[in-house]
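In the previous chapter we treated chains in isolation. Here, by contrast, the input contains two separate entities that must be folded as one system, with a combined length of 399 residues.
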Amino acid sequence: MKIQILGSGCAKCNQLKENAEAAARELGLAYEIEKITDFREIARMGALVTPALAVNGKLKLVGRVAAPEEIKPLLQEG
Amino acid sequence: MPSLFAPYEWVARWATERIFGLDPASRLGSSVEFFLYDVPKVITLLVLVSFAVGTLQTWLQPEAVRRILGGKRLFFGNVAAAVIGIFTPFCSCSAVPLFIGFLKGGVPLGVTFSYLIAAPMVNEVAVALLWGLFGWRIALTYIGFGVALAIAGGIVIGSLRLEKWVEPFVWDVPAGAGEVTIMPLRARLEEGWRSMREIVGKVWPYIVGGIAAGAVIHGYVPGDLVMRWAGPGNPFAVPVAVLLGVPLYANVAGVLPITEALAGKGMPLGTVLAFTMAVTALSAPEMIILRNVLRPQLLAVFIALMTVGIISVGYLFNVLL
């Protein structure tokens, strides 16, 4: 599965990336994680506020950092 | 509403006299009492305001705001954008995706600017602090002038048809549409709670530090010194306060208590309002980040409008009061 973190690279984006990786590891998922910092790409994916989390190209969470526990079900629904 | 905080006042007086054994009329005693009264009061208000705003925000998710403002005309669109901006503060790192998403969603440039001005300027931290430190009338005045400035700034930019000074790539991006999450009331309240904890957790050290510095000024800095530099007799106090506010972008919580102490010694309230607006609305990092989507000419127009507007608010308020 492909996990994408959208954001300009502020502290919140890094926190979200860490939490998403922790969630994926705890679930034992095979994943690759990618940071998207280009504003064009962020806009194309439909995120109006950052940080945002997308799974396999689909936005799952926008505008805030979520805890690993909250991210787990988002990863599981694919 | 003095009665609302009467218990806080009583506790602060009691603790100053009985726990610290200080005379509230002495210098140290008045500083300590000031600190013990202001910290709990401001934090209580911040908890209440940020919980309310965090909850209301779930009805005004950015995607929903984009749909509301899409295709809106000049003036009514600007009014709607500025009013919505009161309830939807956002981090400056989101300014660019919002800007692109709004324009691509059919929100006119001037209306987008009204939102971009009001949302960061009228934020829960600034409002809670102004309310706690200066009273609800000043907080409402700040919101009123902030909204007015956002409406006026957006109308000017919209009327000048400055779309040509938006970076061309913005128009070419194929912007996707997000979704609006429908939540039950319980989830909205939980979101408000989460948002409140995040904000209070982040800013409380600044509030404590700022009020401590304010307390020292309150007890030790002589009034005539403040009157000479920042008082009504100095015609340049407002522009200087605005310039000082620009580099202090992230620290409204830390600097407002200091201005309260200065206001207590004679700095006029219009100067305080202008300073607060400069801190929240003229932040250097936001300008730098907006340069990604605005050509230098439009960025210059935006900064000039905001600077002139904020300084005018300061002078106007000083004259009216």
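The CA atoms of residues 61 and 72 of chain A lie 12 Å apart. Chain A has a mean pLDDT of 90. Compare these points with the single-chain example from earlier in the chapter.
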